[in-house]
Amino acid sequence: MLDFSYSNPTRIHFGKSKLSKLNQEIPADARVMLLYGGGSVIRNGTLAEVRHTLGERYLSDFGGIEPNPSYERLSLAVEQAKAEDISYVLAVGGGSVIDAAKYIAAAACMAADGWAILESGGRCIIRTLPVGVVLTLAATGSEMNNSAVVTRLSTHDKIPFASRHCFPVFAILDPTRTMSVPARQVGNGVVDAFVHVIEQYLTYPVNAHVQDRFAEGLLLTLVELGPLALSEPENYEVRANLMWAASLALNGLIGAGVPQDWSTHMIGHELTAVHGLDHAQTLAVVLPAMLSVRRQEKSQKLLQYAERVWDLRGGSREQRIEQAIALTRDFFEQMGVATRLSSYGIDAGGIPKLLEQLERHGMVALGERREITLPISAKVLEQCL
Ligand code: NZQ
Ligand code: ZN
């Protein structure tokens, strides 16, 4: 196992009746910025309940946060937070709203423009306003981690940042809030969580038995329950297990003491920045191609994955690896997420622009061994067609 330091300070309140914890978590005299997206939390009643629970506290609304939140829109929120002397940021929504909250909470404490956060990957953050979360979509794990991704629309830059100051103070995970999530986002959420586990698991062995078994448990849970969330959207136990699986997939636990890849995510970010694909759509396209191109370097873990997640025991090593990759692709398709660039109207002509973006963002040595250079990314993208 590799050396590691690990801390996750986010308090989780999990279950049907946990919205009431807001009252306990947020100080009575807090000046709260209430952040939300395009209106789903208005339609499903969550926002009204949040307001009611917050009672007499000063509330400053900021809605309209887009999927893949933009620097342009968030800059308006930062201005509002500063002007209204906000002391607490509460995200009510999915990963985009939570990421937005982290950015706003950090930028509101800075004299300089918030773009510095993205330019420094979060290293310039020395303090933030406290962030709380009411999660409505099981997917990113942002509710329990210290990272976020923000897009500058004017320049097609989708940039991640992280800081130890960016963990939410608390997150309320009430699975009933996810019942209204449409099938497309259910599929996206399962695929995103699945790929988060893979990025931390499917690298090379370092004798991290606990992390491997945890990761495999999460993958098996997603494979078993993901399709059920589509066929039985009102099934509480399914929603509850998916919600917790998605948080555990990216709260640092399974990634401590192991090598991490993240090349699929970095290439995926460029696909979103240039072509507007949903985050999980990019992952469903890139991951099978990435595993295929990197099958040699990842062979030991691919064989372990084939056996323990897909129960593949017969045939040659190469056949088992091939089958595991094919089953991964089938699973994404089963979740309703297409796995070929052609399904999104992108052909080979789009590849040079994506490579140019990767180069511009310094994504020229990706993967667990930093071996994925631009020519290898090009090969991966060709296999995505
Ligand atoms: O905007 P509203 O109207 O709220 O609708 C949203 C949005 O259209 C809808 N939705 C959310 N909860 C719902 C609901 N619809 C009905 N009922 C509900 N209960 O779902 C749509 C997608 O929401 P979004 O927040 O964008 O989805 P997700 O949670 O997948 O977040 C994606 C963003 O997170 C970033 C991605 O890059 C992307 O920007 N990521 C953040 C990570 C992190 N912080 O650790 C890691 C991930 O790899 C990812 O990069
Ligand atoms: Zn992701």
Give the gist of this structure.
By secondary structure, this protein is α/β, with parallel strands linked by helices. Helix content is 47%, strand content 11%. The protein has helices at 21-25, 40-43, 46-54, 71-83, 95-107, 115-119, 183-201, 209-231, 236-249, 263-275, 279-293, 299-308, 317-334, 351-360, 374-384, and strands at 11-14, 31-35, 58-62, 88-93, 131-135, 147-152, 157-162, 170-173.
Features:
Rossmann fold; Dehydroquinate synthase-like, alpha domain; alpha/beta; 2 domains; 47% helix; two-stranded antiparallel sheet; six-stranded parallel beta sheet; 385 residues; globular; 8 strands; binds zinc ion; binds 5,6-dihydroxy-NADP
Could you outline the blueprint of secondary structure elements for this entry?
Elements: E1 11-14, H1 21-25, E2 31-35, H2 40-43, H3 46-54, E3 58-62, H4 71-83, E4 88-93, H5 95-107, H6 115-119, E5 131-135, E6 147-152, E7 157-162, E8 170-173, H7 183-201, H8 209-231, H9 236-249, H10 263-275, H11 279-293, H12 299-308, H13 317-334, H14 351-360, H15 374-384
Parallel strand pairs: 1-8, 2-3, 2-4, 4-5, 5-8
Antiparallel strand pairs: 6-7
Helix pairs in contact: 4-5, 7-8, 7-9, 7-11, 8-9, 10-11, 10-14, 11-13, 11-15, 12-13, 14-15
The structure holds 5,6-dihydroxy-NADP (NZQ) and zinc ion.
Descriptive report:
The strands form two sheets. The protein has a six-stranded parallel beta sheet, sandwiched between helices. The protein has a two-stranded antiparallel sheet with strand order 6-7. With 385 residues, the chain is an alpha/beta fold. It contains 15 helices and eight strands. The chain has helices at residues 21-25, 40-43, 46-54, 71-83, 95-107, 115-119, 183-201, 209-231, 236-249, 263-275, 279-293, 299-308, 317-334, 351-360, 374-384; strands at 11-14, 31-35, 58-62, 88-93, 131-135, 147-152, 157-162, 170-173. The two termini are 37 Å apart. Helices cover 47% and strands 11% of the residues. The structure holds 5,6-dihydroxy-NADP and zinc ion. Residues 140, 192, 195-196, 265, 279 line the site of zinc ion (ZN). The site of zinc ion has 6 residues, from α7.
